[in-house]
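Q: What structure does this chain adopt?
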Amino acid sequence: HSYQELLVYNKRSKTLNSKHLDRIAIDIILFTKEGKIAPAEDYLPLVEKWELMGGIAGYRFKFIDAGHFEL
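A:
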């Protein structure tokens, strides 16, 4: 089995067609001042800038993946 298949099996990913495998996607985690993972809406300024540059943001996926950014 591939690494991606294991991620899907263990519910760490929802797709077998990951752009991460093609090295054209990254995940960014934003934190609050308290050190907690930021809510999805905190990603919006970064999402909007990324999309203006032609990128695809996971924030717009059917299941929100706020920290996912791909080319």
